[in-house]
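assembly run, all chains below
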Amino acid sequence: MAEPAVPAPPQGPAPWRNPRVRAVAFQVVALLLLLWFFWTIFNNTLTNMESRGITTGFGFLDNTAGFGILFSLIPYDETNTYGRTFVVGLLNTLLVSGLGILFATIIGFILGIARLSPNWLIGKMALVYIEITRNIPLLLQIFFWYFAVLRTVPGPRESVEFPLGAFLNNRGLYVPAPQVESSFWFVVATFGAAIVGAVALLRWAKNRQDTTGRRFPAWPVSLAMVVGLPLLVFWIIGAPLTWDIPELKGFNFKGGMRLIPEFIALWLALTLYTASFIGEIVRSGIQAVSHGQTEASQALGLKRGQSLRLIVIPQAMRIIIPPLTSQYLNLTKNSSLATAIGYPDLVSVFMGTSLNQTGQAVEIVAMTMAVYVAISLTISLLMNLYNRAVALKER
Amino acid sequence: MAQTPTTGAAAETFRPIAPRPPPSSAVGPLRWARDNLFSSPLNVILTLIGLYLVWLIVPGVIDWAILSADFTGSTRDDCPSDGACWVFILQRLDFFIYGFYPDAERWRVDVMFLMLAAVLVPQFIPGFPARGRTWLGIFGLTLYPVITGVLLLGGLFGLPFIETGKWGGLMLTLVLSYVGIVAALPIGILLALGRRSSMPVIRTICVIFIELWRGVPLISVLFMASVMLPLFLPEGVNFDKLLRALIGIVMFQSAYMAEVIRGGLQGIPKGQYEAASALGLGYWRSTALIILPQALKMVIPGIVNTFIALFKDTTLVLIIGLFDILGTVQAAIVDPAWGRVAVEGYVFAAFCFWVFCFGMSRYSQGLEKKLHTGHKR
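ok done. output:
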């Protein structure tokens, strides 16, 4: 009997059929294409800029800008540099987005809870509000508040008066400005100390309840501390705070603080628009907590408030945080619509006026985009940290 | 025969008395109001505040928009009342729909609208044959943009050439958002696949591309497209304004689309991939035949939501000088011949957007409910 032929050892596939070889080749080709693409763009840009006589580099940041800015948080005038216009624009962007995020969160949570209210009327009103605002473009809402409302209010002499000494006219909203004396900082310091004390008290009370089971009315006591102590100090050192109330003098208002209409329109539209999205996020987050959880908490004898505070909200927050983060990012990016009504934010001041004057498109666009990417990354980093704190701790 | 046993002929059959209606406090509007409006002292207060707000807003709005509004006429003088001047909207309606498109050629835009309706409407009719729906959908995604592009632009087949600078109004809004979504879909699919690829170079490129576009505002992308694109191109090559805006929108949108599709890809269980390779399918065939059909179906609501966002975002093109609906409204309300009609103009534009966006969001919610297989209470 002939020996059966020993089968040849299995050979690997031919190199052009080997997935590993193919993957490497594919990536090298992709990389080369990308490099070629950028190299072409780079070359084209250089030749184009040369033929148009545009200088390159960041030297322009030290040149005098020569244009005024409507509203600035830091001292600025025409003789300042482009570098300073960048900072002014950036601060204005941060101001309107920060205030927008704060108020959109408050209104959004109210809307979300109102949507789930057992009260039919309140639920339906919140629904109508949400469905109207979130289905209309933000730019349209900004235009509405700016051109149709704030630009058509009467002049200073016929100002619309609000309670607490605020006046609205076509030059903006005049609100009382706080005038603090130096001793007012004692009150602020007391307030800070009271907050630290309250946090410590809450921790101590929680610890004691965890170990001994005995409770301590920590919330009312700490609330009294935070509100009462600063008021006490304020009264003892003789009320070192006065309000500079705006007054009509001649054709215009004197005193107080003036908020320009561009700012109010942008802030109002951003807040109201984003609030409706946050409202829906909050509603779906609360509804996503399984019914078994609420039923179990009722079975344990928790009251409705306790079950909300201890069982539902902590679990809902986990679902709410990620989409909430992207809404914050959206709001910040949407604040660039300021350009359309002339609020001097980063895009309007830097990517608009400065770019038109210097023509250095590449540097300016790159700087502006870098700022937005940096803001986005910072906000998502902060929210991720918070998310990690509330996330489910797996065993 | 199985009948109710009777003890005797004299036994009377049991006849229950018909139940009495429940007291009026347990059913009907009264009960409903007590349960839903006045269930606790807090709710009574909330209801009263709500009613006050409704009373404050609704009658005024109805009076302004309908009761004391003017509907007929042709000039400002036909709007003597305090209410809305809808005459203005009716008079400028052509401008809001066609922009500066020449009167004689507007039938081309109408053909575009009709074809769009022919593609879209069957998708919402449940009884329509599925095969026809699929073919219409494929036609809408491939041939339709090409045909309408030729039709609207002209210059071929004896149609006069209409430069894109004359496009405007609702038509431009639809062109921008439709092209934006149709072109962003394939790019988004490739990016999403690249982001989940096992090749590090490809993955890195895709991640950087996606995160970069998602991190910047659309307005800066549009600025970039209109200011920097001409610098990037070789000398002598130039695109018109609309095309540059479209490139910006497509880049921006494809990054968002990629993230939506990635969500769908992540939802496919590993067994599907393994089964596909067990059948001997390669990467592209298993992706095209097994993975994508399932993943895309799952993310249709997400795609519709991105489309809604894009539809609203197209208004931004007015900042770089194109006239979409909002742009035409903005241009029309400053006409001194009409006086103060800003509110009417904005309400009209808002209504147009609202109808589209609300309709689409209802559609996507319906789909979500249909696709939702978990238990719900």
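Residues 342-371 of chain B form the longest helix (30 residues).

Residues 38-66 of chain B form one domain.

not gonna interpret more than that til we talk
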